[in-house]
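Minutes, project check-in
Item: structure for the 186-residue chain
Input as provided by the requester:
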Amino acid sequence: MKHLFAIPDREWDSIRPLLRHESYAKGDFAVREGALFRSVGYVLRGLLRSYHLDDAGVERTKAFRSEGGMISPYAEILRGEPSRSNIQAIESSEVIWLPFDAINEMSKESLFWMGLLRAQAEKNFLLKEQREYEFLNLSAEAQYERFITEDSARLARIPQFLIASYLGITPVALSRIKSRLASKSK
């Protein structure tokens, strides 16, 4: 992890003992809805998704995170509440977890950690803002076109039914969209 963020040796020495490395097999849960979870994860390898279950038990995929991505029930951590979402491995994955309280304390004492936290918060804000804009303003077809353009590297790694869940549509509706797009490109 040190080489990924160019962490100075002094800062690295302060954080190393706090890190927890976890491996997840495909289908394993890193976080379950209802759990009080207080750590932020950095995906070293693999692919995970964050999702909610609606009142009817339908899964609503909130986000996908792969190598280099941060994952956690961050809003609930900030509010001190149990997680409202599940975080599940889509494929075999490795995550480094750091307790949020430790990050928060370190950021009070170190400009490096404060800057890193701010940069990550801004990155996550922009991702959420883009997702919200697309969901509110774009058709499912336009969202899918954006997804296959901007997330092409992960596209083959994500099952179609999960992409449909991310777009808020059924797998059948996604199949129809893919057929329409294929016929347009001919």
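Outcome recorded: The beta strands are 20-24, 29-31, 39-45, 47-53, 59-66, 70-71, 86-89, 93-99.
No further action items on this chain.
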